[in-house]
């Protein structure tokens, strides 16, 4: 491997990111020119205009080419979603505390004067608002739920095996054939006719996109000599072929994947467009090339390292409000390695090991590397995995096949598709290649349901009756009944809001290229936003489950100690001021995460209620809603707007992340945390769940590898769905807060993805530091 080449490329993506207007400007130009045409064709023409005109470049030393934006790193603006929210902060972006974005004055002028006026009444939000003004009022508070489809749809694993078997010339020619067949039957309009017209346009666009890079590589080769000249000529040869044709070599296959990946990021909102089971579909190319001597392991490492680095070229264009809920500049482009095949046999291969090595050596924020583990996983692989984690590689998440497959089967996914599941985004699971899960469509602050149940449906932070109108509870059983009613009420609001936004996306922003990348859409002639995929889920995440469970067991203890429900409610309203004795009692009550059945049963119960409420609903695309339990960093944002809870948590403090204990409440060590988490009903979580284990590197000691391997095996045997590790030191994190430039590459696992610690907002940094309390 050539570490000089890799370090040079990493250095290029480590510059301060800039706000990029190129895609935004070109997209808007095309949309202005196509008014009145079918929307799917307008979107296809807009993507074609972008791919054929956006400035392209090949960076020095690159083997895999295709920049998502000129002069990376940078942030792409999607004006059709919520991208223009950032327009009010253009002057402050370069100087904000975290996640700074450089802004060119001329670009700012273009955004304000040319782009924003056009999109004022044409966004997804503008379409949706009149259909649900009451829900939008609650959404804008940021306290109860977040509806992410207001920004656009993404969160999907692309079916690269399907694409690699065809090439985009096949889609071009097959679209033409289907258009002719429709015309011969007298059909010259309609959704299916427009779909294939759009498919033809985007197929041409992607083919031409590759040819642009081929031409540029040839031009650059003229001014080079030696090894770099040969590399550029090879790149030119590859891009003349892919993605138009089927790849035949490993280098061609990886380049095919990246050109499509970068094109998809010009069409779709940038969150969680994932590459699926990459070690499985690239392995035949790797094995053939190694066997025939076309490449060696070192060249394969360099090619994969280039691919990993490319995913770091973009960051989200989040405004200051979104930074509270999605801190860390992650785009969550996930790759999945390891796991079993469609027959249930372990499918770990040489490429699985190599991709783990690339991840361990580079330690980048992206891609989000997800490792599938099962009882047949090789011992050597588990040891190598544990070694990487214990040494501080905080960019790995582990998924256990038994629990994940069971959850998908329970959601009516066929056995083979369930066994072939992939991951996308943070911790979401999905049938690979034939599903559109929109797996992060919404996040719900479940602690608000408890606040409403205790306060007759009134939101204490805002004074509005956002909850269902219920009477003041007097007994624990009474409270449980009202809590479930409030959970149901909030879920119904979110379901309605998500369905309206799904409809808005289908009307305002169909996605013809993405529809070629999900199996069944092309065959049906139905856009992915309208239900073209075989499996159609909408994922909704619970945040604060453990806080609610801890509160219920604390209430039970306080009532038994002679306090009344009114005492508890009033103590929470006063943030425990004047109620110090009661506060101490509440804090000392059993807590989830300590293998205490008295506490764990309530967290399990609340999560089951939540799952039942979510999973029974149907979505706009004809599929099901799917419950998940992970927070991004909404546990901090939601916590800011949540009053004091009977668990003893004070007003404004973060909520618990995923199925992890409330911060600082895990008192009995890591094994107790895993035991508590294993009691939850993962079969009801087809959208995934996150369990984060935080350990000080001092605690692990010399036997760190063996400890981590044992924890992995225990998690799998006990039936946990997911686990991820943070191996950190508090003093190091404090130094990073004081001198961020010296610790630019300090990577931490947040809540389903990794981020550079210094790019997290201060409240999120503090929450991460507080987690490092677990003992072995």
From TrEMBL:
Signal peptide residues on this chain, from the entry's feature table: none
GO CC field: cytosol
Domain PFL: 1-650
Positions of post-translational Glycine radical modification: 752
Coiled coil regions, renumbered to chain: none
Domain (Glycine radical): residue spans on this chain: 657-776
MF (Gene Ontology): lyase activity
Domain of life from the UniProt record: Archaea
One Pfam family this sequence matches: Gly_radical
Alphabetically ordered keywords of this record: Lyase, Organic radical, Pyruvate
PANTHER family: DEHYDRATASE YBIW-RELATED, FORMATE ACETYLTRANSFERASE 3-RELATED
Descriptive protein name: Pyruvate formate-lyase 2 (PflD)
UniProt organism field: Archaeoglobus fulgidus
Lineage: Archaea, Methanobacteriati, Methanobacteriota, Archaeoglobi, Archaeoglobales
